[in-house]
Amino acid sequence: MTFRVSRTILGGSLLAVVLISAACSPSASMGGGTPSSDPELARHGTIEVTAKLVEIPEGAIFERELYNYATVLKYQVIEVHRGSVRGQTIYVGHYNPFKPRADAADQLVPNIGGDLKTFREDQVERMSLDGSMLDEFSGAILNKYFEEDPDPIYWAVWTDLVSG
Amino acid sequence: MPIDRRAYVYLAAGFLAVIIAPGVIQTVAELRRGETPGALELFLRPPTARNLHAYEHGLEASSLVIQRLRPRMQYAEWRFLDDAGEKAVVGREGWLFYRPSVRYEVERPAIGPESDSSDPLPAIRSFRDQLQARGIRLLVVPVPNKESIYPELLTRRAQGLGVVVNEQTQHLLDELDRNGIEHVDLFQVFRRVKQDQGRTGTGRLYLARDTHWSPAGVHAAAASIARQVLAGGVLSRGDHAYSERSVVAQRAGDLVEMLRSASIKGSLLPESVVCSRVVQSDSGAPYEDRPDSEILILGDSFLRIYEHDVPGAAGLIAHLARELGRPLASIVNDGGGSTLVRQDLARRPALLSNKKLVIWEFAEREIRFGTEGWRIVRLARSASEFN
């Protein structure tokens, strides 16, 4: 084996080790900031929870060309920090979920935000919620759980990523 | 002649730079913002098709290189190749068309049902039956695609075709007849108006750079729906007096907005649209809905345009109210005419408590491309059952 080939293999291996180490680091997070210290969480909504996003149903999040919409997602509650929720499994409406939360607010829904960039299954998120999406949002709702008749559907005001 | 080896090296280096640069730029930008590089996501999740697709989608949305280069490329393609990209199709005389609508018009549907909810008829029949059980009449109003009414503005080859009714649409209209489901045939109505006005007149029924109808389209639709409502005998003309006030609205067009290119938008003058705003004759106040009206109208953005958008109170809802002499209740769900708007109604059963007529409007392309397809939506029999 030539010196050049050995150097290439060694370099490639080192790069792989660095990437895997970074990926496996417990602090690895696709969002920014420290969610628990985000003062915006306490400022918004009447409820604050840390919850795991159980699933993203097929077609629940997509970039809609013409119109705004909210989608309903299912969460497993890990901890309730403020207020109370009904049960361990909750349903939460997110406005224009294909956008990073920091860019999602607009004239129709001005007061939402957070550091979460992309919704992914199994993510743990810390959210400020309002008690009823139907009271807060009058636009188009995409509810893949309609047949299950979830009640209430909470409304996500601030969404920070904790892990995942 | 021997080729200089350096040429190969430069070519390969240039090629590699093009391939690698976007990733490096993105990673550096993310690190400078104090973020974890997005590329690590590839290693954080199992490489399933769904995760890889989501990663790719996220990359497209967040890539700095794409954000910088795409608008320039898009404008160049628009300016020199008459190509509006993946959302819209450039027609004739400055008209734009929505690509899914064009697809609806020119592509044959898949053979056999695509899914359990791809056939509109069971959902419409179920809705009619549930309303009938409450003593409420249903009137269905499919709104023609722009391409159906003005195919000659999409392509020269459609010159002389007049109004085109897609095979799938015709099948649905026939099935509605066969099942005794009352509907308004706006294809016939618009064909007559188009013939009367001539193609070059100012009264075109759709906007040039928007997916929706013009004020002329709104007027024609409102008049024909009202005629059919009153002919049904369940409701007579009310005694609310409304007047019209002319007002000009500027619209860039939703198809232009959809291109998301400031350069393209800046190169086009907004369309000046002369609308008729409906006002109360006595007070001059703009038309307002009444949730306790005996008529409920459900629909998509064809109800929203001019009504909730500028100038307000000048869309189909207000004009239908004027024609009927009575205010209406309404639910508008942008892009959700097939299923979402009925789900919306199911969440608000009190709206049905005193209704005699439900008018259900949806855009023609929804027949195949409706968001959530055509699901059967169960309405609670009463508000108390819902609660």
Q: Which protein chains make the most extensive interface, counting residues with beta carbons within 8 Å of the other chain's beta carbons? A: A-B, 29 and 34 residues
Number of strands of chain A: 6
Using only C-alpha atoms, the radius of gyration of chain A works out to 19 Å
CATH topology of chain A: OB fold (Dihydrolipoamide Acetyltransferase, E2P)
Helix content of chain B: 40-55%
Mean pLDDT of chain B: 91
Oligomer: heterodimer
Largest sheet geometry of chain B = 4 strands, parallel
Inertia-based shape of chain B = elongated
Which structural class is indicated by helix and strand composition of chain A? Answer: alpha/beta
What would you call the structural class of chain B? alpha/beta
Order of strands side by side in the largest beta sheet of chain B?
Answer: 3-8-6-7
Number of domains of chain A: 1
Helices and strands of chain B, in N-to-C order? HHHHEEHHEHHHHEHHEEHHEHEHH
- Count of discrete alpha- or pi-helical segments spanning 4 or more residues of chain B: 17
What's the number of extended β-strand segments of chain B? Answer: 8
Low-confidence sequence ranges of chain B: none
Concise synopsis of the structure shown:
The complex is a heterodimer of chains A (164) and B (387). Chain A is 19% helix and 30% strand.
Describe, in plain words, how this protein is organized in 3D.
- The complex is a heterodimer of chains A (164) and B (387).
- Helices cover 19% and strands 30% of the residues of chain A.
- In chain A, strands 1-2-3-6-4 form a five-stranded mixed β-barrel.
- Chain A contains three helices and six strands.
- By secondary structure, chain B is an alpha/beta fold.
- Chain B has 17 helices and eight strands.
- In chain B, the strands form three sheets. In chain B, strands 3-8-6-7 form a four-stranded parallel sheet. Chain B has a two-stranded antiparallel sheet with strand order 1-2.
- In chain B, a hairpin with a 5-residue loop joins strand 1 and strand 2.
- Classes of the chains: A alpha/beta (164), B alpha/beta (387).
- At the A-B interface, helix 1 and strand 5 of A face helix 2, helix 3 and helix 15 of B.
